[in-house]
Amino acid sequence: MTGKDKVKTRASSTGFIKAGLLVLLICVSLGIAMVYIQQNTYRTQVSHEFHQQHLSVGEYLNSLLVSYGQGIMSLAWTVSDADEDTIQARISTTMELTALEHIYYINTDGHLMMDGKLTDRSSVTMFEELSDINFPRNNAYIGLAPASVRLYTERRIVIAAPVRTADLGIRGIVFSTVDMRKVFASDAFSYQTQKGQCLVVSETGEIVETSAGAGVVKIDHESFQLGLLEHSDGKGLSKRALQDYNYDVTSRKSGFINLTTADGYRLQVSYAPLTGCDRLVFVSCFQDNLVDARIKPLIFTSVLTCSIITVLMIASLFLVWATAKRSNLTVEKLAYEDPVTGGKNLNYFREFAINTMIANRELPLIIYRFDIANFRYINESYGHHRADMVLKSCIDNFTKLFSERELCVRMDADQFLALLINDSLLDKKMDEFNNAVNADARGNQIKYPIRFKYGIYPVKKHDHDIDVMIDHANVAKKTIKSDAKDNKATYSERFVDDMRKVDHIENSMQKALAENEFKVYLQTKWDIHENKVTGAEALVRWVRPNGSVLGPEQFVPIFENNGFIEQLDFYTLESVCMRMREMMDEGIEVVPVSVNQSRLLLHSPDYVENVEKVLKQYNIPAGAIELEITESVFDTEKEEMIAIIRRLKLLGVRLSMDDFGTGYSSLNMLTEVPFDVIKIDGGYFARSAIDDPERMVLTKIVEIINGLGMEVVCEGVENEAQVEYLKTTGCRTVQGYYFSIPVPEPEFITRYLQK
Ligand code: C2E
Ligand code: MG
Ligand code: MG
Q1: Cα–Cα distance, 591 to 625 (Å, whole number)
Q2: pLDDT, tens digit, for every residue of 263-281?
Q3: Hey, whose CA ends up nearest to atom 41 of ligand 1?
Q4: Are 94 and 103 in contact (CB under 8 A)?
Q5: pLDDT at position 17
C-alpha cells in the first residue's frame, strides 16, 4: 500500500466520521425540536381544555345568577298590591325556591323589609340608588350593588327588580345579594379553585368577588389588570395580551391570555362575560404547572428516547472512530512499517528522503544501499529467527548511532537503504555501526562475521528523482565482488555499462545452464620428474550460441554474488563424474580430475550429502575426484569449515587447497586441515622464481608440505626455466600453459587418455 492509498483511506474514514457527526447533530436537533413541539402542542391542548372548562363553569355561574334574577323578578311582579303578610309569605316561598340567603324589599319611603319582616332600618338613599338602576325590561338587574347596599349587606353583587304600580311607577324594589365566596366554594368550581382562583370582574376592571386563591395565584387588587401586572414578572405579560383582554371584555367575548409570574410560574387567565349580568366578567386564573404535570411524563419519555438514540449514536460513532483509527494505524503500519525489523520501509524512506532533501537544501546527503554478504548462509545455518535478529539489530543500532535527520530502512530480505549526512563523522559512525551489529550477532551465538557491502550514492541535486538515486547506489553495490577486500563502492557513470553486462549475464545464466552452454575444459597436471600427465583440473567456460567463449573471470564473480555459482559448481562436478563414468565404462584409463568448489557452496546446508549423492550415482572410485577449495573459506567459521572438509574426506575424495599463498596463509592450516594437495598459486610462484628470499620460502614450504605427507602442485608454469627451478624445490606436480592450456574435454581425452 502506498502513502497515497493510506492518505485516501484516512480521508475516507474522516469523511465518514464527519458525516456521522452531522447525522448526530441533525438527530439531536430533531430530538430537541420534537420535544419542544410536543411540549407546545400539549400546552396548547391543555390550555384549550382548561378554557373549555372555564367556559362551562362560567355558563353554570351565569345560569345560577339568571335563575336568581328570575326568582327576584317573579317576586317583584307578585308583591305589587299585596299586604305585608302576603309579601312575607311570597318572599319566604321565593327564598325556598331560589335558595337565596336573604331577600329584601324596600319601598319609596326607604322602609326596608328583610326576608318579609320589617327592619328598623330605613334608607331613602338605598332606595334612591337602587331605583337609579337601569332595569332591563323583562329581567331583573344582576350587577354591581350600589354603595348603600354594599354597606348594608357587604355583598358586591346585587339582583334587583322593581315593584311597579299600575301606572308603572316604582312602589318599591325587591333585591338580594349573592355571596360569591360561597358560590365559588361549591363543587362546581373545585377544578378551578384547587389550582387557581375564580373571580368576577367588572368590565372596567374592578374586582367584584374572588374565590380564595390557591397555589401561587392570588390576585388581590382593586383593579384586575393592575393585579395581573403586579403578579407578572414584568416581561411575561405582554402589552398585547392585556390589550387583547380589554378588547375582548368590552366586546363581550371570551378568551384566554398567558403570563409568567415573578416566581417563574406560568398563569393562564381565561375570561368569559356573564351574559345575564350587567357588565360582569367571569375570570379563572390557572397555574400552568398543571400543564407541566400532565405533559412531563410524555416529555420525559421523548427526552429519554432522544437521549438513548443520542447515546447509541455517540457510542456507534465512537466505535466507528475507534475502528477507523485502528484500521488507520494498521494501514499506516502496512504502508510504512517493516514487520521484520519494526523499523520503517521503502515507502516511508522515499517520503522521508524527499522531505529531508527539500527542507535541507544545503545539507550534504548521501545514500547507502547495503546488504549482508552471504546472508543466505546465516539464514540457513542459524535459522530465520536469529537471522531476523541480525536484521533488527541493523535498524536498532542505526537508530542509536545516527541523528533523527538520518534514516535506515530494510527494503526486503537483507537489503537496506540509508539516507545519511555526509560529514566528517560518517566513516567513524559506519564503523561503530558495523561493530555494534557484529557484537549483537556474537551475542546471539552467530559466529559468522556480519560483513556489509555498501553501494554509495552522494546526493548531488536535492530535487532529483529519489528512485534514480536509490538505483545508482544499487549499481555501485553490485560492482563489489563477493571476495573483495573493499566492501564499499561509490557510484560512477562507468558502472552503468558494467551493470548492463551483469544484467545480461544474470538474465541468460539459467537458460545457458539448461542448454548446456557451460562447458568443462581440462588442464593437465604434469609430473615433471616422470614427464607425464597425472591429473587434470576442470575449468568451466561459457560457450555462447554464437561461438564466443567467456572465461570464468567474466561470470564466476557475478555468480558468486548472486548465488548461482552453487548450481554451476554442482553442474560441473556432475558433468565430470558422468564423463568419468562413461570413460571407465568404455575401459579408458582415467586420471584424477579436480573440480573447483566455491566458498558459497561450502556454506550450502546439504553440500556434503549432495557430493556423496553424485559420487554414488556415478560410482566414482576413491581418489578419482579432487575438490579444490580456496584457502579463503577458512577466513570465517574456520571450525565449521574444517568439519565439512573432514566429512568430505570420509567420502573418499581428494582435497586440495587452492590459491595457497594469495591470502594470509597460515602454516597451521596445513596441520589442521586434512588436505591431500596444496596448490601454490601461480602469482606466488612467479614471484619466488625471481626473488631469492621468496625462493627460499617456497623451497621450505614445499619441503614442509611434502614432509607433512601432502602433495604440492605449482600452478602457472609457463616456461622450461620455471620447470627446472621447480625441480630443485622438490615440487613434483605442476600445472601451466607450458604443458597445456585448458582444453575442451573431448580434446583432452584424445590427447592424453586415449593412446
Ligand atoms: P584456479 O582454480 O586457480 O585455476 C587456475 C587458473 O589459472 C585457470 O584460469 C587457468 O587457466 C589459469 N592458468 C593455468 N596455467 C596458467 C599459466 O601458465 N599462466 C597463467 N597466467 N594462468 C594459468 P581460469 O580457467 O581462467 O580460471 C580462473 C579461476 O576461475 C580459477 O582459478 C577458479 O578459481 C575459477 N574457476 C574456474 N572454473 C571454475 C568452476 O567450475 N567453479 C568455480 N567455483 N570456480 C572456477
Ligand atoms: Mg583451481
Ligand atoms: Mg588456483
Answers
A1: 9
A2: 777 788 899 999 989 889 9
A3: 540
A4: yes
A5: 67
Burial of 493 (C-beta count, 10 Å sphere; 0-12/13-18/19+): exposed
d(CA 199, ligand 1 centre) in Å: 131
Q: Is the CB of 560 under 6 A from ligand 1?
A: no
CATH classification (class only), 346-491: alpha beta
* Distance from chain centroid for Cα 438: 38
Estimate to the nearest angstrom the gap between the alpha carbon of 100 and the chain centroid: 86
Return all residues near 91 (Cβ < 8 A) that are at least 6 apart.
75, 79, 103, 105, 113, 115, 116, 174
Q: Is the CB of 565 under 6 A from ligand 1?
A: yes
**Burial class, 127, CB count within 10 angstroms (exposed 0-12 / middle 13-18 / buried 19+):** buried
DSSP string, 328-392: HHHHHHHHHB-TTTSSB-HHHHHHHHHHHHHH-TTS-EEEEEEEETTHHHHHHHHHHHHHHHHHH
Cβ atoms 403, 425 nearer than 8 A: no
Residue 371: CB within 6 Å of ligand 1? no
Side chain identity at residue 272, one-letter code: A
Nearest CA to ligand 1 atom 20: 716
**Among the atoms of ligand 1, which is closest to the Cα of residue 551?**
26
The phi and psi torsions of 526 (rounded to 5 degrees) equal -115, 130
What secondary structure letter does DSSP report for 44? H
521, 560, 564, 596, best to mutate for ligand 1 pocket (most atoms within 8 Å of CB) = 596
Instruction: Tally the residues of the chain.
Output: 755
Q: Which atom of ligand 1 is nearest to the CA of 738?
A: 18
CB of 539 within 6 A of ligand 1: the answer is yes
Percent of the chain with pLDDT over 90: 55
Closest atom of ligand 1 to 520 CA is 41
Domain positions in the chain: 79-178, 346-491, 502-677+740-753
Strands 549-550 and 593-597, sheet pairing: unpaired
Does the beta carbon of 717 lie inside 6 Å of ligand 1?
A: yes
* pLDDT tens track for 438-489: 999 999 999 899 999 999 999 998 878 999 999 999 999 988 887 777 899 9
- Supply the residue whose CA is at minimum distance from atom 12 of ligand 1: 716
Written as nine digits, the cell of 287 is: 397555574
Task: Return the CATH superfamily for domain 502-677+740-753.
Answer: EAL domain (3.20.20.450)
Using alpha carbons, select from 715, 717, 712 the residue that is nearest to residue 738.
Answer: 717
* Closest residue CA from atom 21 of ligand 1: 716
* CATH 3.30.450.20 for the 79-178 domain, yes or no: yes
Q: Which residues are within 8 A (CB) of 258 and not within 5 positions of it... i.e. 6 or more apart?
A: 47, 236, 241, 266, 267, 268, 269, 288
H/E run at residue 121: strand 117-122
736 close to ligand 1 (CB < 6 Angstrom):
yes
The alpha helices in 178-277, defined as continuous H runs, are: 180-185, 190-195, 224-231, 239-250
Helix (H) / strand (E) element for 56: namely helix 3-78
Distance 444 CA to ligand 2 centre (A): 35
Residue nearest to atom 8 of ligand 1 (CA): 539
Threshold 0.85, pTM exceeds: no
Q: Is the CB of 626 under 6 A from ligand 1?
A: no
**pLDDT band (50, 70, 90) for residue 7:** very low
Q: Do the beta carbons of residue 406 and residue 364 sit within 8 Å?
A: no
Cα–Cα–Cα angle for 154, 158, 161, nearest 5°?
140
